[in-house]
Amino acid sequence: MTAQTTTVGAYAAPSAKAPLERTTIERRPVGEFDVRIDIKFAGICHSDIHQARNGWGEGIFPMVPGHEIAGVVSEVGSGVTRFTVGDRVGVGCLVDSCRECENCLAGQEQHCLRGTVGTYNDIGKDGEPTFGGYSQAVVVDENYTVRIPDGLALDEAAPLLCAGITTYAPLKRWGAGPGKKVAVIGLGGLGHMGVKIAHALGAEVTVLSQSLRKKDDGLKLGAAHYYATSDPATFQELAGTFDVILSTVSAPLDFGAYLSLLRTGGVLVNVGAPEEPIALSLFSLIGGDKILAGSAIGGIAETQEMLDFCAEHGLGAEIELIEASQVNEAYERVLASDVRYRFVIDAATI
């Protein structure tokens, strides 16, 4: 067992809005219930950019982003029972919680009533800052580690640890399946997985995007229909159509207009997290008994369920593999919607 901290390479933002740069960080010793993971791939999520640039509030710097981690176990603590050296594993958006509250006991660790410990930009129970996946290795409690099935390539699996569970959980919760019409707003890192998963669940899927630029992609990913939201006729034609609408974009929308696309009793679930507040007339909810909901990732067990589902249906993320030195360019391209559909860092280049 490793008796002391280890130094690993990483890419970090030294301060808010500063370019990321290569550095070294300390990883804690492998404790009794810990696994050490040699990181192979780390996805770039839009939330990494929000946090590295203080878009969601004051961050903790230096910051090593990354909560879409795929790798291989290289060491286990003496009490570990779930994993052995050589296992293919993943780590998502949280690395600890209280484990005792109502939500933790119900498998909803992401809603821990005492507060989760984020994979990065947070303070662990040891009082030290957490550092994420843009690094060579990480030490994580086995209870917050999931197994990546053999049917999924590690690079295509990495984005599932956020983008996959973020879309799977609300689609499953709100009954996306045979006989249901589901719309996905935005065909980006989250949206493309939403289309794949909703289609695999058996729903009839429509993409609602600003333009028709990605229409061919959307249809290949499993959408039956594709509409441009920049065309006012779209909202007239599709009024009252959908059982579930999944909004994956991080820009403020006219939610009243999108609520008009729901059937009576339908739900608009928001998983995008705009930095600005939105305005909403409640009449758009009252008319038609409609629901505006939110969803945040999923618990550890549900994340494992999602990975198993994706392996069963052959659903990996559509990725563009990059070297770590390209991370700042990748951030700008994400902001310009110039990626199809998830950047993944090859950790061997860190």
Can you put this structure into words, describing what you see?
Helix 4 crosses helix 5 (189-201) and helix 4 packs across helix 10. The longest helix is centred in the C-terminal third of the chain and has 14 residues, at 300-313. By secondary structure, the chain is of the alpha/beta class. The mean pLDDT is 96. The chain has helices spanning 46-52, 102-105, 154-157, 163-173, 189-201, 215-221, 232-237, 255-259, 283-286, 300-313, 327-335; strands spanning 6-12, 21-27, 34-43, 69-76, 88-91, 94-96, 117-118, 137-141, 146-147, 181-185, 204-209, 225-228, 242-247, 262-270, 291-294, 319-323, 342-346. Strands 3, 4, 5, 8, 9, 16 and 17 form a seven-stranded mixed beta sheet that branches. A six-stranded parallel beta sheet has the order 12-11-10-13-14-15, covered by helices on one side. The protein has a two-stranded antiparallel ribbon with strand order 1-2.
